[in-house]
Type II secretory pathway pseudopilin PulG (Povalibacter uvarum), 172 residues
Amino acid sequence: MRVTRSIVQSYIELTDVLVAIGIIGVVVTIALGDYRRALTHVELIEVPFLVSGIRVDLHEYRATHGAWPDRDGVSSHSSSRSIEDERGTNNVRVGGEAALHFTMALMTTSDAGVLSYRAAVVPGNASSSIIWTCGFAPVREGFVAPGTNETTFADALLPSPCRQGLAPTTKY
């Protein structure tokens, strides 16, 4: 009888340990998913800073010539520019009508995607302010962004100014 009681106590202790390990495993799995999502979000937050020089080039071209450049007339006379960072080389392509399409590979996953920026202006006013609309964000009322949005990242991963339903904030 005594041996049986010892075996039962060992079994209960082993079961307790296994349940605790299972609970820890579930918590770690949930936390790891949130951590990866947060890292992806941080990577996408860098994009506005990486493309800011090209946005300034477009703005200066428009201020000088009164119109947007064609694909061959922007950013050191090239329609595509590579930006080097810790992930490697990322490509920025000008898509006509002042639309920038930033292609990047994410460090957190093996996925690559595109985040688009479109210049929005007041129609018929060559000296109007320029608002850069990114991702799925709607164009501010009274402005028009003729460039196409080629964003492929999920809305939830984008920086808040680039999400659907939020107003654009970057203004020049």
